[in-house]
Amino acid sequence: MSQIQAVLERIDRDLDASLDRLFALLRIQSVSTDPAYKESCRAAAEHVATDLKSIGFSTEVRPTGGHPIVVGKSGNGKANDKPRVLFYGHYDVQPVDPLTEWAHPPFEPRIETLPDGRKIIIARGACDDKGQAMTFVEACRAYKAVTGSLPLPITMMIEGEEECGSKHLFDFVRNNADEFKLDLALICDTSMWDQKTPAITTSLRGLVYEELRLTCADRDLHSGLFRRRGAESSAGVEQNPCCDARRQRPRDHSGLLRRRSGIAGRCEG
């Protein structure tokens, strides 16, 4: 039997205990966007740190200007010049309102069987991102149980503000840049190819947010009476602000601006 096959079989044998550990985390109401859940977020961070310690990671719950970040290190350094891995996840979850849309309480995880026979876990955070993060943790647990050590030096960074913009993560990373200059980064917060096929997403990029503000007339202007300032002929009619917005984005080939902002359709003079 190969080493990987032995690890996979260990994961299967330990499935019930793995689910118990996941459900314990899912029961913590770590809603990061609501100050009323501040202590719950702290409890979730402490829970994650304790769990990582149980598989041999040295862990710290580090303060930020908001919810804390859990940092765990496997401790095998640069052994044999193997690549050093940074794993990113988050323990916070989105709000659960409106509660009337939930068939069962959102922080009471349960397993349901779908008509096609697949079993799914239903709870807030089960698939964003406590479930995925714990999948990686459980893989590390099984690998260490079978082989005695992890195959690579791993640093885990589990934050608590992903659902509210990670506003303190960037300063945290900048202030600790030397510590996190590793060889590759891995996250488990992407998509599957379909409902039955896992997928590996590579070369992830960041996001760019833009805000476009236009100053225009506060009422409709008749094109026969008003013309653009500086225009020398009657053809220089006052333009629709939507047309101006589109001219400011000549490289918007994807049409994303038009779809997201409602700047689309007819541009009348």
Question: What keywords describe this structure?
Answer:
269 residues; two-stranded antiparallel ribbon; 7 strands; disordered C terminus
How would you describe the overall organization of this protein?
The chain has 269 residues and is an alpha/beta fold. The longest helix has 18 residues. The chain is elongated and about 85 Å long. A hairpin with a 5-residue loop joins strand 4 and strand 5. Helix 2 runs antiparallel to helix 4. The protein has 2 domains: 185 residues, Aminopeptidase, CATH 3.40.630.10; 62 residues, no CATH class. A 5-stranded mixed beta sheet has the order 1-2-6-3-7, with helices on one face. The chain has a two-stranded antiparallel sheet with strand order 4-5. It starts with a helix and ends in an 8-residue tail after the last helix.
Strand line-up of the largest beta sheet? 1-2-6-3-7
Poorly predicted spans: 256-269
- Tell me the span between the first and last alpha carbons: 74 Å
Helix and strand element order: HHHEEEEEHEHEHH
Strand content: 5-15%
CATH class of the largest domain: Alpha Beta
Mean pLDDT: 86
Beta strand count = 7
Helix content: 25-40%
Individual helix count: 7
Class by SSE composition: alpha/beta
CATH superfamily of the largest domain: Zn peptidases
Major pleated sheet: 5 strands, mixed
Domains counted in the coordinates: how many? 2
* Radius of gyration computed on alpha carbons: 25 Å
Shape: elongated
> In the CATH classification, which architecture of the largest domain applies?
3-Layer(aba) Sandwich
CATH topology of the largest domain: Aminopeptidase
